[in-house]
Amino acid sequence: MVARDCKGFRFLVRSWEIAMGDGNYDRTLREFCIPDYILVPGSEVRSVSHVPACPVIVFINTKSGGQLGGELLVSYSTLLNRNQVFELGKNAPDKVLQKLYATLETLKHNGDNFAAEIQNRLRIIVAGGDGTASWLLGVVSDLKLPQPPPIATVPLGTGNNLPFAFGWGKKNPTTDLQSVETFLNHVKAAKEMKIDSWHIIMRMKAPKEGSCDPIAPLELPHAMHTFNRVSSTDKLNLKGYHTYRGGFWNYFSMGMDAQVSYAFHSERKLHPEKFKNQLYNQSAYLKLGCTQGWFFGSLFQSSLRNIAQLAKVKIMKKGQWEDLHIPRSIKSIVCLNLPSFSGGLNPWGTPNRKKSIYRDLTLPYVDDGLFEVVGFRDAWHGLVLLAPKGHGTRLAQVGHVGFVIIPVVFFFS
């Protein structure tokens, strides 16, 4: 089951009206820098006269984008206070933000108005792929901060759908000081926009004898926001079921597309040294799509089943669950929260409101409380997205969907 978190989370939408940097790095530092007494607990509190216009905390995944992450780490550390730039993998983002906000709250309690302004104006920059950006969203979600800082994304992955959807582009960036300064100015000028957060509830019937708890859970990509078992006192818990909860912000897919995506994630984790640039990653994804049968299912996996054979799909309309008809040819279903998919493509397209079949469908938005359910027959069907008005098979536009798979039940909302 997928459910929406009505709070939403704030992303920064790139504005093209910016004040360009003039090459004076000291001035740039002045507008984005956070002093050490806020970043390093126990530091001497100093009086600060200038409040930065856009204080930032920067998280960089050096494993993303080949060697670009390491180069970005050097550039940001040169322009900013080194203590506000963090390398993911060496620094857990939840611990960094917990420590920062604890310090800010303490200083505010002691009457530090500067700390209050830093908290009000704080923005996060995350450099990495979609999984890294979603990881940060999950961290901010779990911390339940009173005022979650908006997030800007540096496209440093394979598809970069999150950055693209919010105007930051999809190509890996240049890493020199001038380019980083320009990006910082874009962050300062950017507008805030909320993005829906979707919850996934997975229920499995408990065995009559024994327990499935000793079975190690699957390791999921960060973009999936790892499933956790809900407590016995949680209202989501049902007697006779094991219930798990997770979430997503980009999209959730089931079927052949998900199989290829997971194969790509697993291969990259086993051989990270091979995935050094965006072009290689995309070609590796294409190759896996072929070997997994996504292009030539009849040749590689003649027994490949369609979604209708794997699951019964239900959607909620006007508070009531009803069956969703899935054509027998559909082998993959994608639940989209973004208008960007597979490196900038839009599977939903623009529904023609004059056609009765599309009369109730609207354009996709990231903050409308709805996600789009799209089906694909195979990868060849997906190639229609390259056409100007190409789209997948539009199945539904809803706020709740359920997949009933024996013996597992997924609910999305």
Automatic annotation (TrEMBL):
It catalyses: a 1,2-diacyl-sn-glycerol + ATP = a 1,2-diacyl-sn-glycero-3-phosphate + ADP + H(+). Its EC number is 2.7.1.107. This is Diacylglycerol kinase. Keywords: ATP-binding, Kinase, Nucleotide-binding, Stress response, Transferase. Monomer. Belongs to the eukaryotic diacylglycerol kinase family. GO terms for molecular function: ATP binding; ATP-dependent diacylglycerol kinase activity. It is an enzyme of class 2 (transferase). SMART domains: DAGKa, DAGKc. GO terms for biological process: phospholipase C-activating G protein-coupled receptor signaling pathway. It comes from the Eukaryota. One of its GO terms (cellular component) is membrane. Residues 51-204 form the DAGKc domain. It comes from Glycine soja (Wild soybean). Pfam families: DAGK_acc (PF00609), DAGK_cat (PF00781).
